[in-house]
Structure formats: structure tokens, C-alpha cells
Amino acid sequence: MATRKPLRPREELPQAAPKDSLDRELIALLQANARESVANLGRKLGVARTTVLARLARLEASSVIVGYTVRLGTEASDQGVQAYVGISINPKLQREVIKRLTRLPELRQLASVSGEFDYMALLRAPTTMRLDALLDEIGELEGVLRTTTSVVLALRVDRSA
User: Fold this and answer.
1) Residue 121 pLDDT
2) In what order do the strands lie in the sheet with 107-112?
3) CATH architecture of the domain with range 81-151
4) What pTM was estimated for this model as a whole?
5) Burial letters for 96-112: b for 16+ Cβ neighbours within 10 Å, e otherwise?
């Protein structure tokens, strides 16, 4: 009788990105519809249902997939206008500016970036008038040197949760 090797503890599993194009396609399908059945995923990918289950288990165990969620449609989500704002900041006042920006309820994301700006903010305001006032508030913060805004006209692909 053959003996089985013990499974490696969870902490030893690799924390890696998707291994191949099948993993990436599977993730893209789940981002479009996290409730898609394993059987349908297999059909769309051209692989067996058991292959999809094994891939999902591996992606979950290695923390590539950390959860499943619901995205609200435009009717159910906040109506309004979104804008990306590039922000240049005086380095000496960076912490204070970030603290004040995080207090804005309209701030959805704030990322430090390379290039022309120090930070890129994603804002959502109920109206263009509120967005305009919000941009004035940000521009008047002590330490903000310059902002440049791009209003989102249409969302072509949204894979965020």
C-alpha cells in the first residue's frame, strides 16, 4: 500500500501571480461574473469542471483570489460624476495633505504614482457643481502645489469590486 505525502502547511504555499493564460482567463471571467457556475466556466475555457475547481482552489490557497463580491449597477450605485485628479504636493507637507484628503467622503482611491504627479486621486461627486467645489477645496489645501483633473466620460471596462 502506497503512503501519501503530507500536505504542505498553508504558509508554505507560494504567494504567486496567476501561472498561465488559463489562470488569467479564469480570473477575468470571475471578475465579470463571480457567480458563474464552475460548469459554465469550464465550458467557456474549454476545460473540465474538475480543472476549474483545482485552479480555483490553488488560486484561493495562494491568495491570488481572496474573495468574491457584488458590484452594484449604475442604477443602484451612487449616481454622479467621477474624476481622476493628479496632485503635486510639497514633500514637507505630504502627511498633512494626505490626512486631509482622506477625510473627504468623495475620495474613492488615492495612489502615490511615478511621473508628473505625486498622487492620483479618484473622486466621485453627486454633481459637477460639487466636483468643482471639491477641486477648489483640494487646490486650497496647504501643501498642494498643483492639480490636473480628468473627468470620466464613460467606463469601458470595470473589474474592480
Assistant:
1) 97
2) 107-112, 119-125, 81-89, 144-151
3) 2-Layer Sandwich (3.30)
4) 0.58
5) ebbebbeeeebbeebee
